[in-house]
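Tokens for High-affinity nitrate transporter. Go.
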Amino acid sequence: MARRGVTTALSLVVVFLGVCLPRPAAAKTATAQVHLSALPRALVVAVSPKQGEVLHAGDGVVTVTWSLNTTEPAGADAAFKAVRVKLCYAPASRKDRGWRKAEDVLHKDKACQFKVTEQPYAAGAGRFEYRVQRDIPTASYFVRAFALDASGTEVAYGQTSPDAAFDVAGITGIHASLKVAAGVFSAFSVAALAFFFVVENRKKNK
């Protein structure tokens, strides 16, 4: 009986706290999904490498330029506050690679994984020289630029032709210093093994 009374009292306390304590604020509404297909192609984007040209990661330079499409009406860029430029896998380098899959919903898109630059929008045109980062893998690429509004949401875009992509040769070799380090550690391991073997033999012979 005493246990039932205690359990009942605890239940009443829990109910009381649940009623009296302020409820947590409702979760914020999920960020609206932006679809690439719904964005106006208001930017004209160009790059310096020619179709099929091979750049080397860590060394190659891509000059990217963008401007407002002349077909856009006056004031079409009034909401443009910044430009975000990305390096995107070309279709040939996405085939049978789900981790590079292109998606219409931008936050799910895996084709444009590499940021080139993000900078304030300058009316008319912009330009940026991008040195291909050392971690860019071997593949074919095109460039896509997004115009962002004050909240950082994509409101327009432009891109180079995915069918006129340039290539990047990634860094796949092992650096000489790594080979030296591996050799030193291997030699140390062999020496340590020999040392412990001798010690164990001496212990057994005593």
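The mean pLDDT is 82.
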